[in-house]
Amino acid sequence: MISLNRVTRIFNSRDGDQVTALQDVSLEIGRNEFITLVGPSGCGKSTLLRIVAGLILPTAGRASIGGEEITEPRAETGIVFQAPTLLPWASVLDNVLFPLRMMHRIDSTSTDKAMALIKLVGLTGFEGKSPRELSGGMQQRVAICRALVHDPDILLMDEPFGALDALTREEMTMELLRIWSERPKTVLFVTHSITEAVVLADRVVVMSPRPGRIAEIIDIGLPRPRSFETETTPEFHEASHRIRQLIFGTRHVSSGRAAA
User: Most buried residue, 25, 74, 116, 219, by CB count within 10 Å?
Assistant: First the structure.
């Protein structure tokens, strides 16, 4: 589905220096696979996501979807950012329908599709509300609906729950798992949370400090559907501990089982 072959991305800084954000990254992602990217700040996670989105091009290497090189944004890729970026003057329903209007795909079934998504994320009754009348978690649910309304085959998520409080973040993690189980997509999810990365993923891609490389890819064999109880299992703690070792080395990581 998604193929990255020795992808490198170099930026030119304002003072003329070259900054290598990604170096020689290769990754294959299968259809409907849930992949999380985790690593220290500045390791190129978001840069990698932007390359897959077609928002920027690699300096070297090749990024492709279904065998076709990614050279620009594609209609069948949905994106959810950390900030919901909803239209403040538009209702929830109109915000969800916005991508279809931009793509000139509005038809007689569009409102029903949008309302079904609004119901899926538990916002029935709020379709006429404006963003300012919603909590942060509710706004992010609307952003997820908006990314899914045109039924993309790929969903890219750049720390979508990073600005939420801890309790809402946990709730949204479980909500995303439920949505993905009901409407499977190929998901590439960037996060700084090790717990989030393990609970969500089929595989966790751990990035090294800049220049960003893949330090290790960890298979998550936890059974689905997953729940809060997943975090109490030995398999969860083993995977979390390994990720911490890769990111921090021996610093801050005890030899025993890591806390979630």
Answer: 25
Q: Report, as an integer, the average pLDDT of 128-151.
A: 94
Instruction: Spell out the SS3 assignment of 98-136.
Output: HHHHHCCCCCCCHHHHHHHHHHHCCCCCCCCCCHHHCCH
Separation of first and last alpha carbons in the chain: 31
Last residue of a domain, one of 132, 152, 172: 152
CA angle 28, 30, 32 (to 5 degrees): 145
Please check whether residues 134 and 167 belong to one and the same domain. Answer: no
Residues of 209-246 as b/e, b for ≥16 C-beta within 10 angstroms?
ebbbbbbeebebebeeebeeebbeeeebbebbbbbbbb
| Residue owning tokens 């952003």 | 143
Number of domains in the chain: 2
Q: Is the pLDDT of residue 260 over 50?
A: no
Q: The CATH number of the domain where 7 resides is what? A: 3.40.50.300
Instruction: State yes or no: cis peptide before 58, omega within 30 of 0.
Output: no
Residue 258 domain flag: no
- Domain membership of residue 11 (yes or no) is yes
Q: How far apart are CA 14 and CA 40, in angstroms?
A: 23
